UniProtKB/TrEMBL annotation:
Keywords: Signal, Transport. It comes from the Bacteria. GO terms for cellular component: membrane; periplasmic space. This is Putative aliphatic sulfonates-binding protein. CDD domains: PBP2_SsuA_like_2 (cd13558). Signal peptide: none annotated.
Amino acid sequence: MASTSQPETPRRRRTTIVLAALALVVLALAGGWWLRHRSAGGAGGAGGSALIVGDQRGGVQALLRASGELDNVPYKIDWALFPAAAPLLEALGSSAIDIGGIGGQPFAFAYASGAKIKVVYAARPIDGPDRGRSSAIIVPARSPLRRVEDLKGRRIATIRGSAGQDLALRLLERHGLKPSDVTWVYLNNAEAKSALETGAIDAWSTWGAYVGYALIKDHQRAIGDARELPGQAGFYAANDHAIASKRAQIADFLARLSRARAWLADHRAEYARVLARETGLPEDVARFTVEDLRTAPAPVDDSLRSEQLDILNRYKAAGIIAKVPDLSGAFDSSFSKGQ
């Protein structure tokens, strides 16, 4: 897509500031670099080496801090912050980080692309009125598009193989459209937000704080969201090197994560304040995001394999991947025993 130079205006300056807050930093996605900083863990633990944790926009770090689960950690945690799952998975596959939180959809795409990673932890959304509202297809306020069916012949921006693309595929199918009925425009979330504002695209399929900001601050509209679809599991994945060399740290970290998510059930407002403070998100956007984060740990079992096969078959049918991989090496259930 060709780009054109535009003069600096107050609106464009505001958009620049917003994108920085949503992504935390301006990350060079193609170059594969990220912001890293260290938590207040100790130097002890198994082997005394730091656990390098990939986090999307600081959300899990803020949750662990708000719940007190970063207190008295007997090893150091280095946090690597990413704006989306794709660069996180690239870093995980290259062993630049040890473990990271991602959705099942980008995991499927990365695994089909040959990433040497395994699911070590899973969580499923808890049903409720807000479940799925922060995964949505967004259009401008004055767009003529009112329903998912109106997307036929239109341009949808998303990240290839992401939760946003899988959401769009599922909604298109539910409303009688094929993947070929739309034009896919592959942009990262910052690029897609700008493209929607300039009219370079017709719709944007995204998730989390990006949806919250679009609806609350930009007064854009959702023409479809995940509330009308069955929930899907989210994962923590690790690479083989980390599983072999940092098993004790990973097990302890995942136990802290489970406790923090249980704490969240009755402390959503408190977590939203910490999330807003640590990420720069407006507090109302943080609250919107947090309301859709109610999850419960799930076993790493055959139900996850079945769900991953559904995603992979959908991606293959849409031409996103060339073939469905063998999933026999994609899961390590040893960390989920006793959950």
